[in-house]
Amino acid sequence: MTQRPAPRTPNRQLAALIAEAGFSNAGLARRVDQLGLEHGLDLRYDKTSVTRWLRGQQPRGTTPALIAEVFTRRLGRRLTAQDLGLDACAPVYAGLEYAATPEEAVDIVGGLWRKDSGNHAELRRIAFTPAGLVVPSRDWLIGRADERVARLEAPGARVPAQGRSSGGAAQGSDQAPAGVPRQRGRGVPNRAEREPGQKVTAGDIAALRSVSELFRTLDDRYGGGHARQALVRYLEHECEPMLRGVYGEQTGRRLFAAAADLTRLVGWTSYDIAAHGLAQRYFVQALRLSQAAGDRAYGAYVLVTMSRQAAYLGHGREAVQLVRVAQQGLGSAAPAVVQALMHAAEARGHGVLGEVRACTAALARAERCLEAARPGDEVPFWARSFDEAELADEFAHCHRDLQQYRAAAQHAERSLQLRSPAHARSRLFCRVVLATARLGLGDLDQACRLGAEAAAQAADMRSARALEYVKDFERRLEPYKDAAPVRTYRDKVAALG
């Protein structure tokens, strides 16, 4: 006798959320299809599909995660497939989660490092999604500080008998807790190879900071693609074991701060090679790590970084909103240089939107703040490079976007005069902005000369952004393609190979 399948149970959780969101069945199906397109999926759901889900049918593949994301966007809170009464599946938005705890943050970012270290090409093809900015920035703004990050013992760590002590370290202390592996007779952890469970020292954190400076220099000079993969492997093999090691409260905060900086940097290098969805995920995780560090100012800087990526990709509204969240979260007590940096980032968003008055006002605020800065001010390390040269570059970019070419040329020239050759990629960008301004002013010869110089620099870098700046200039040359200076420019670029 053939056994009949068990009747399905109606999905009351999904029905309740549909009612809360105000969706019709057809409206939900349409939104799932649209979200699928963002991920290269050709989905063809309709109101009948939603009716089946409500009757208890389970959608296949990544569809549960897509449905959850549709409700997350609509209702403004993070929802999972399980919250909708659907079977769990691999989340489409993995890496964009804003973790509830420091431990969960380590799990998420560690997973990203390991996948990226494995050279998973699909990671670098993930699309950037403006909607993925909303929940993390909101959670950072309203989230409470983590009460505790210390790890006073490591689960599963091997504990030699001679390494045991009669008492454990007090919570919040940076003394070595009981159970830390030690070398026989010397009382020093074996550092030949970093493993989870080892005590984290001040030297470890100093090493993380030194590595950050090294890779930042390489990025500035040669582009994000030059040593990005080496940085990812360092994070996997050195930083993650530290985060899973043993440390007290003070050391733990400093460790999370260093990890946040390195994670932002690997996001920045991913952004520079046009792996925009991956970069977005790294920035979100850097934001969460900064919260574990208790470093509100650095979190604001991460949001400014996210704003710059959004502006570069043409999402001006999101760029402005991210900076405003950063400003609100940091407050008015920030150093003048930090305030200048944020106003300049806001101006870039307004420039992308063509909002002349708002852009000009934000630039004026940035200029006043930078003028108010004094040599003795206490400025975080990440803001110390924001100087007259960088502000002039911000002015140049904004005036270019607003098609105010004379002002753009003046500020670009000033930035190039002031900025150190060590910032090679930034100088390249500024040179292209100057070339574009000269083109807008009708000086075709000068524009092509500057453009050719920038193209030669870009050929020596591993930076997709550098190449895109040059391509943007070349698109602007199209109306003049038969002119002699343009033909000469194309010959020079062709010779670069």
Automatic annotation (TrEMBL):
Organism ancestry: Bacteria, Bacillati, Actinomycetota, Actinomycetes, Kitasatosporales
Name the UniProt record assigns to this protein: Regulatory protein
Region (Disordered): 153-202
Source superkingdom: Bacteria
